[in-house]
Amino acid sequence: MSINLIDLLTYRNNNVLNRYKKDYPNNKLSAEQAFEELMKFFWLNIQHEVDKKEFPHKKDLDFIVGIHSEMKEIDDMWHTFLLFTKDYISFCKKYIGKYFHHTPSVDSKKITKEEFKIDFSRFLSYVYDHLKKETVEKWFGPLLIEET
Length: 148
Description:
By secondary structure, the chain is mostly helical. It has one domain. Helices cover 62% and strands 0% of the residues. It is built from 6 helices and no strands.
């Protein structure tokens, strides 16, 4: 199931935005920015699922779409949204077509630094290709690569 990014980016929930402002007044991302980035993250997850089903043998899709430590403020927004359970469930049903679980990492499978590097590189490339440089920089900071 493919979802429309524009639909997600036009969705707003003032209760969630106001609660985030109250709970995270010192975050760098405003409530509106954090909410927008969360919508992009949701879209990216779903798009990645779609792409993996369509191209199951494509190696550059072999990575985990997850919240990294640099994305803490986006995760803060997700936690805030989850507090409004009825709104979150309604949003998921209408915009995503299923309940989108927030599953914390459980370090059950350790990966090597090299495996992490490959996974993270593929993830960054996917974000860059689908959501552009500005999103990568909002999520992870300024890029250290030169554009060609």
